[in-house]
Design goal:
By secondary structure, this protein is α/β, with parallel strands linked by helices. The chain has three domains: 97 residues, STAS domain (Transcription Regulator spoIIAA, 2-Layer Sandwich); 67 residues, Phosphorylase Kinase, domain 1, CATH 3.30.200.20; 148 residues, Aminoglycoside phosphotransferase (APH), C-terminal lobe (Aminoglycoside 3'-phosphotransferase, Chain: A, domain 2), CATH 3.90.1200.10. It is built from eleven helices and 16 strands. Helix 10 packs antiparallel against helix 11. The structure holds adenosine-5'-triphosphate and magnesium ion (MG). Magnesium ion binds next to loops.
Length: 329
Amino acid sequence: MHVTSQKTDRTLVIRVSGTLDMTTGNTLEKELQLSGINRLVLDLNECHFISSAGLRVILVARKQMAGENRTMIVINVSPDVYGIFELTGLSKLLTVKRKIREIAMDNLQLISAGVCGECYRLDKETVVKLYHEGVEPYMAEKEKQFAQAAFVMGIPTAISYDVVACAGRTGVVFELLDAELFSTVIRNDLSNLDRHAKMLVDVAKTIHNAKGDPAVLPNFKQSFRDYITQLEGVLPNEQIRLLMEKLESVPDAETCVHFDLHSSNIMIQNGEPVIIDMGDLAIGSYLFDVGLMYVHHLRRGGTRAEPLGDQNTDGTRSTTLGRILQTLF
Ligand SMILES: Nc1ncnc2c1ncn2[C@@H]1O[C@H](COP(=O)(O)OP(=O)(O)OP(=O)(O)O)[C@@H](O)[C@H]1O
Ligand SMILES: [Mg+2]
């Protein structure tokens, strides 16, 4: 094992490589010169295993770093070592960040380009959704976390794997769905709009009946209160007040809202719907989804994402939306 440390201002970065056990733990303990330090970073990029004696040394560091304005963070943790942190409960006591796997851009086959980034085929069974350059890495982290939360709640969605880095961008690896976009299915079968509308409603209900975990998912109303507050000084006070009033008029809920629910975020696999694009999943009233669906459907001629609006050119505008709303309420 090898331990190196680097001190800048009041931050101490300690890098550990190899195995952290009883013998090597002593070396680490000697490096923990923490007086005057307010931020300790333990970089485990090259560390493959930690024994209980090694964990004890980390706990000693944690104890020493306890107190106001002092933080400790463990970074670049491999999946195996992360497993040890989870198994022992240390991941609940410490801020532990996993190592991000680097994947090569060569040979990635583009499946689809979206607003946030692109989706590439990674291998026979997985895809990577790569966010555009400049998008904060936490966006990928968030989408992965929310997709997993949805999966655990029983919402049909793609299995999510790790967050990866690729040529300076961040992405999430998902199972490759052998599926067609629901919007394509609808376009190729416009004579069965009732059936499609019902499927969209059934999908919506699966999400709207699922009780969300507040420890994982944000509260939709609270997030939007924050967004509206940020508009102070940009919009006139009267409009801010009106927005807040409208927001508060929507009832609170413990269930989930997808907030991008259209037929291009649903894929049909073996006749069954699978919902993708979980980055905006939140806890909140289903009425927020209904509102967004309404906007998609009102656009004349429908949108690329929502062909169920295609029928709205000649006075039958409300028909498809009406069917959806009738089935929903
Ligand atoms: N797990 C998957 N398996 C196969 N294809 C997928 C998978 N996830 C996404 N795709 C494809 O990639 C497209 C974009 O994915 P997604 O909707 O998650 O990204 P997005 O950036 O939000 O795109 P958009 O803004 O166009 O909706 C999907 O419409 C679909 O064609
Ligand atoms: Mg999408």
